[in-house]
């Protein structure tokens, strides 16, 4: 079965700090995504990538940035965290193959900014 | 702009009951439709994926149907169990974007 990993699982941090949320997948998928989800609400796409050196902004405005230097790695960075950034961040990937563009999700990072 | 709506928002049923969750979408130009399960505070687990050319998919006690022309999908859960309690999300993919519904929160009572 496919694997996609997110670290840290939980993060509590003070306002103004720089943070990086890590996401890695071992499936060789070309497409990767970051979603933001508040409790009881739908997922909103904040960034996506078609492949190495490709990044695009999603539908939800976000002050975060992403990079895609390696196929398997898609980190998300907040330069200066604020309480409004408190949310769950979910990373996902998909690609051609037996799963037919099935989306695979990591376990998420629950971020709390004090 | 694609919009995905799920009805009902919440559902509570006794164990053993068969149930249907509904999903509707506004733009029929989709590549596929997926149903996911999400447990509290966790990521999403894909349950079923229906390609745009397909009408339904089955996995165990789960059956999902797709009617692109009417913009609807249903997830049928047979003989529900307490372990089925979770939020079920519908998502449609067009191009490189996947749009999610807000989900149906299901509680199965023992």
List the helices and strands and how they pair.
The complex is a heterodimer of chains A (114) and B (110).
Chain A: E1 4-7, E2 10-13, E3 19-25, E4 31-37, E5 44-49, E6 56-57, E7 65-66, E8 76-78, E9 87-94, E10 104-105, E11 109-113
Parallel strand pairs in A: 2-11
Antiparallel strand pairs in A: 1-3, 3-8, 4-5, 4-9, 5-6, 7-8, 9-10, 9-11
Chain B: E1 4-7, E2 10-14, E3 19-25, E4 32-38, E5 44-51, E6 56-59, E7 62-67, E8 72-77, E9 86-94, E10 97-100, E11 104-109
Parallel strand pairs in B: 2-11
Antiparallel strand pairs in B: 1-3, 3-8, 4-5, 4-9, 6-7, 7-8, 9-10, 9-11
Describe this structure in words.
The complex is a heterodimer of chains A (114) and B (110). Helix content of chain A is 0%, strand content 44%. Chain A is mostly beta strands and 114 residues long. In chain A, a hairpin with a 6-residue loop joins strand 4 (31-37) and strand 5 (44-49). Chain B has 110 residues and is an all-beta fold. Helix content of chain B is 0%, strand content 60%. In chain B, a hairpin with a 4-residue loop joins strand 7 (62-67) and strand 8. Chain B is globular, with a radius of gyration of 13 Å. Chains A and B meet through strand 4, strand 9 and strand 10 of A and strand 4, strand 5, strand 9 and strand 10 of B.
What is the rounded distance between the termini of chain A? 37 Å
- Residue stretches of chain A low in confidence (pLDDT < 50, at least 5 long) are none
| Separate helix tally of chain B | 0
Fraction of residues of chain B in helices? under 10%
Query: Which strand-content bin applies to the residues of chain A?
Result: 35-45%
Quaternary state reads heterodimer
Rg calc of chain A: 14 Å
Total beta strand runs of chain A: 11
Helix share, percent of chain A: under 10%
β-strand amount of chain B: over 45%
Query: Over the alpha carbons, how many angstroms does the gyration radius of chain B reach?
Result: 13 Å
Largest sheet of chain B: 6 strands, mixed
Give me the secondary-structure category of chain B: mainly beta
